[in-house]
Design brief:
The protein has helices at about 20-30, 70-75, 110-115, 115-130, 145-165, 170-185, 190-195, 200-210, 215-220; strands at about 45, 65, 100, 105. It contains 9 helices and 4 strands. The protein has a domain at about 145-220. A two-stranded antiparallel sheet has the order 1-2. The chain has a two-stranded antiparallel sheet with strand order 3-4. The structure holds zinc ion (ZN). Zinc ion binds near residues 34, 66, 69 and 70.
């Protein structure tokens, strides 16, 4: 899950929590903070601690962007004071907490073992909260995350294949630009980072292409 940095609260006082959308989008891009899906409609401003369960409605620290699939699943489960039970992409190293090697994300057990029980539990809680590994087996389950993530994976895999052929040629810079644009439009930062896990040059381009990415967690 892409770790992000939102920066300080906007100078302009928020009159309604929905007003935070433009600032969050400007700083983080129009991607879901949880599943990383690009959002073509207006992203939903998400409260980490649910506003109907005592969470602060206007507090910048309590806000993220979400797709409707993650937001619906998260619902109002996290009540005031429960934030510490979860990892959060704008506070914690969520980059290493999950793996995107297959078509379904999973907990990075090897990494989490080193972080201790508490962090592992927080990672699992977040993972379950938004049901990051959900597969909609029937059309009645409205969840496009699985399909769109795999579309992005196919773009990333295709790009990697092309890049391996082109990187020593004169066209390399143009091809890098195409990779950057394709990654930005198909989203799923972590999927791209995994496909290019052995290519520091492309990874650096991806880290810079997705604005608001917390770089120190993604390097190395
Ligand atoms: Zn989402």
């Amino acid at each position: 899950m892409r770790p992000v940095t939102k920066g300080e609260a906007p100078d302009q006082e928020l009159k309604r929590y929905q007003d935070a959308e433009q600032y969050l989008e400007e700083r983080l891009g129009a991607y879901c903070s949880f599943c990383e899906m690009p959002i073509s409609h207006v992203p939903e401003v998400e409260h980490k601690e649910a506003k109907t369960k005592g969470g602060e409605e206007m507090s910048w620290g309590n806000l993220l962007l979400s797709c409707k699939y993650c937001n619906t699943r998260k619902g109002t489960i996290v009540k005031r004071g429960d934030k510490e039970k979860y990892l959060w992409p704008d506070e914690d190293d969520t980059f290493h907490a999950f793996l995107y090697e297959d078509d379904i994300p999973k907990l990075n057990e090897e990494y989490l073992l080193l972080q201790g029980k508490q962090v592992r539990q927080k990672a699992e809680n977040l993972f379950r909260l938004v049901k990051l590994d959900n597969i909609p087996f029937t059309p009645a389950v409205k969840d496009r995350r699985y399909a769109v993530r795999n579309e992005a994976r196919n773009y990333a895999l295709g790009s990697k294949q092309g890049w391996d052929k082109i990187k020593k040629s004169a066209e390399r810079e143009e091809y890098l630009q195409i990779i950057e644009m394709l990654a930005q439009s198909s989203g799923f930062f972590s999927v791209w980072m995994n496909v290019f896990k052995d290519d520091m040059e492309v990874r650096q381009i991806l880290i810079n292409a997705f604005k608001g990415t917390k770089k120190e967690y993604c390097n190395g």
